[in-house]
Structures are given as C-alpha cells and as structure tokens.
Amino acid sequence: MKVYEKLLLENKAWAKEKLQLDPSYFNKLAHSQSPEFLWIGCSDSRVPANEITNTQPGEIFVHRNIANMVIHTDVNLLSVLEYAVTHLKVKHIIVCGHYGCGGVKAAMGNHDFKQVLNMWLRHIKDVFHLHRKELNSIEDENKKFDRLVELNVQEQVLHLAKTSIIQRAWKHEQSPQIHGWVYGLNDGIIKPVCELNPDSDIEDLYKYDDI
Ligand code: CO
Questions:
Q1: Taking the CA atoms of the chain, what radius of gyration do you get in angstroms?
Q2: What pLDDT digit, counting tens, does each position of 177-187 carry?
Q3: Is 101 an active-site residue?
C-alpha cells in the first residue's frame, strides 16, 4: 500500500465510525457552519487546531501559514479574516504560535533560505528588530527564542487590530475578541500571552475614524 492510500483508508474508517455514533452527523454538518472561532496558527504538523483544543469539525474556522503571520498584504489571510468576521461573525480570533517554531528560529539566524522564504521570514526579523532591546538583553538563546515566539504572536494580534475589517466589526458588532496564545510542543499546554477587546485602544495612526 502506498503511504497516501493509508490516508484514504483511514478516512473511510473515520466516516464509518462517525455514522455509527450519529447517523445524521454528515447531514447536519453539510447543512451549514457557524464556528465561533477563527484560528490563525502555524502550518507546523505538530500543532493541529482541532486536536489540541479537543474540538470537532464545524467548531473552528482555520487559517495556517508559516509562523502564524498576519501580513496586511496577504490576500489569503485577509479573505479568511473578512469571511470569518463579516459573514460567519466569529466571536473570537485566536492567533496561536508555538514554542520551537521553525519559522521563528530561521528568522533569528542568517542563513539565506532564498526567495520566497526570505520574504516571509523578513516579517519575523522585523518583529525581532522592533523588540531588539528586550530580546538582546536575554542571554540564554533558548529563552530568547521562546520570547520571540511570544512577541511574534503579540505583534500579529496587533496587526489584526490595525485592519479595517476588525475595526469595522469592533465598532458595529462589539466583536470579536482577539487572543494571542502560545502552544508548548513539550507539554501540549497552551499559554495565553495577550488579548485585545473591541474597546482596546490602538495607535492613532492605524485608526480609521469614518468606518
Ligand atoms: Co511554527
């Protein structure tokens, strides 16, 4: 059996199991989705949104990329955000990073990963640069790495608040709440690191007043 064939086989077994537990399982799910959460996480195979939060299909709308970045010119991310906030009306957005993130580690080094990876990692280098005082004061390399993972999540949460999509929803819906979390590969535990609410203040320059 080829490796990918195992996935198809497992899929059949999974679907059968679901139907045994609830014969209308797929009928109900196929009808519509109304997830309360948008998850912006890392593509890392060890950080699957549903498994680590013990949630089911239909509960979390998911976007994942290398190092859980929110880049204001990323049409993919912005489409997901717009759909989740304006149409699905999610109540919470979670930016979830993880300790040991390969993308963050790569951005801390000087290796040339070639375009387009250099382009992507550059955004994380900019986070380091923004917080270089604090980061350079940490001598232990592992602790510095962990802290950059946390600060990167914090910056991505702020990036969300700088979008007109979020500001419009905050003004007219008093929603969503935005959470910055970091998952530990070593213990499976998620640590909350920051939170923004519809009444949170953001830097004047990024505010839209006629929204
Ligand atoms: Co990662």
A1: 19
A2: 999 999 999 99
A3: yes
